Amino acid sequence: MAHRNAEVVICGAGIAGVAAAYHLAVRRGVSDVIVVDERPPLSLTSDKSAECYRNWWPGPDDAMVAAMNRSIDLLEDLARESGNVFRLNRRGYLFATADPARVPQFVRAAETAAALGAGPARLHDRPGSDYQPAPAESFETQPTGSDVITDRALIRRHFGWLADDTLALLHARRCGWFSGQQLGMYLLERARDKGVRVLEGRVERVDTAGGRVTAVQVSGAGGGHTVATPRVVVAAGPRLQSVGRLLGVELPVFCERHAKIAFNDSLGAMPRAAPLTIWTDPVRLPWSDDERTELADSEHRHLLDEFPAGVHGRPEGTGESQSVLLIWAYDLEPVEPTFPLGFDPGYPEIVIRGMSRVVPAMAAYLARLPRAFVDGGYYTKTRENRFLAGPLPIDGAYVIGALSGYGLMASNAAADLLAAHVTGAPLPAYAPAFMLDRYDDPAYRARLEHWGDSGQL
Ligand SMILES: Cc1cc2nc3c(=O)[nH]c(=O)nc-3n(C[C@H](O)[C@H](O)[C@H](O)COP(=O)(O)OP(=O)(O)OC[C@H]3O[C@@H](n4cnc5c(N)ncnc54)[C@H](O)[C@@H]3O)c2cc1C
């Protein structure tokens, strides 16, 4: 059994653990940080993401918007200092509807987001309105807030590839995507420059004495390690709950399985410069009359039912890439995380059919489906879909996780917050919204009963 010492041991080298190591070592000057993971860094959930970001979040208060604005500030700083190695863009999220009832909802959503701090709402209800589309690559000098476009001529002029019956668009602007792997590797390299070490192995036990963390026991291919440390950070992604139990803490999180597909859009159905495009109406999948009859008598008859709102997609890659990513979370249940994950073989067809409602040119793929690559992972979530970053009820123990479907975009704010807790630095106003002890407050627990929109796409 080898012995080591560390100021801080981080359990997990996903984006949460890597960002925590970066913020502790690089931005807060903590020396002797060890990150322990049984897998290569960033390889469990953090390489399965759609890599999008947004400051577009619901209430009930401004905590999510404030935290995401902070995270995006940090991402933009990192992009500037690195020559944008992780290709941060600012194309926005484009929400689309063909439902007249949703048009006033778009206007209200834009005003609510403005009140929460996402930036101003601009309404474009005339053909000559000065709506400014987003550039494909740059993130500098772009507007924040949102543009709501209700003039159909304006919609056709800028987004003629969307369904003809699109009645309104909401273009949220402080949003886009980036390479999560490149971001993670950049953070890890900067952290290593400051002495952060990565130890391959599994955290099996956390030792405590007198209610304080004293050591972490790690098993690995090269034998076991005892790392004497006064601080441990649980950053175990979908294993958050089981690692929390090593400390005798029951973390209020659960997992959902989420998948995405990628395929070559060889017909160019989706323009390469398109924003992330989200259809906000429920969808009935398009089938021919014969297919409909056949399905009605089969075990797959549910494919004739209405599917929930939210099918979305975006182009992926630069240069000659023809790849598009599509996601549709139409079937979600809390599950125990097990690996490797399995996915419904029908998922690619369902998502391409669904997306053809939004981007009609995709219907050309329905006769002969393109070969699609399917992958995914678990969203690890709290009930109200707000992450955890802060102390646990054992001296020296901390958590960063429950980053749900937004962990790439939120990792910098969450890690910045965690590092402030660890080093005793002043905390931002939104800190209490992400601490575990929020659930000790009966008033907060009562609010959970009527929480409303969790912001999940
Ligand atoms: C389909 C899909 C789409 C997504 N899209 C987006 C998006 O567009 N934008 C966005 O921001 N986010 C997105 N996400 C979410 C994002 O990927 C996650 O929130 C994020 O990767 C979580 O990071 P993590 O570090 O908490 O977990 P992980 O990446 O899972 O890392 C946890 C690490 O802990 C390690 N570990 C666990 N237990 C132990 C132990 N006992 N000892 C040692 N190591 C241990 C694991 O091996 C793992 O490496 C998406 C996720 C999915 C699945």
Walk me through this protein's architecture.
The chain has 457 residues and is an alpha/beta fold. The chain is built from 10 helices and 24 strands. The strands form 5 sheets. Strands 5, 6, 7, 8, 15, 16, 19, 20, 21 and 22 form a 10-stranded mixed sheet that branches. The chain has a 6-stranded mixed sheet with strand order 10-3-2-14-24-23, sandwiched between helices. Helix 1 (15-27) links the parallel strand 2 (8-11) and strand 3. Helix 1 (15-27) packs parallel to helix 5. The mean pLDDT is 97. The structure holds flavin-adenine dinucleotide.
Task: Describe the secondary-structure layout.
Blueprint: E1 2-5, E2 8-11, H1 15-27, E3 33-37, E4 52-54, H2 63-81, E5 93-97, H3 102-116, E6 121-124, E7 146-149, H4 152-159, E8 168-172, E9 175-177, H5 180-193, E10 197-200, E11 202-209, E12 212-219, E13 225-228, E14 232-234, H6 240-246, E15 254-264, E16 276-279, E17 283-284, H7 289-296, E18 306-307, E19 312-315, E20 323-327, E21 334-335, H8 347-358, E22 373-381, E23 388-391, E24 397-401, H9 407-423, H10 442-448
Parallel strand pairs: 1-13, 2-3, 2-14, 3-10, 5-16, 6-7, 14-24
Antiparallel strand pairs: 4-9, 5-8, 7-8, 11-12, 12-13, 15-20, 15-21, 15-22, 16-19, 17-18, 19-20, 23-24
Helix pairs in contact: 1-5, 1-9, 2-9
Distance between the amino and carboxyl termini:
46 Å
Q: How large, in whole angstroms, is the Cα Rg?
A: 23 Å
Q: Assess the beta-strand content as a share of residues.
A: 15-25%
What compounds are bound to the protein? flavin-adenine dinucleotide
Structural class: alpha/beta
Show unreliable segments.
none
Helix content: 25-40%
Number of helices in the DSSP assignment? 10
- Mean pLDDT, as a whole number? 97
Q: Outline the biggest β-sheet.
A: 10 strands, mixed
Inertia-based shape: globular
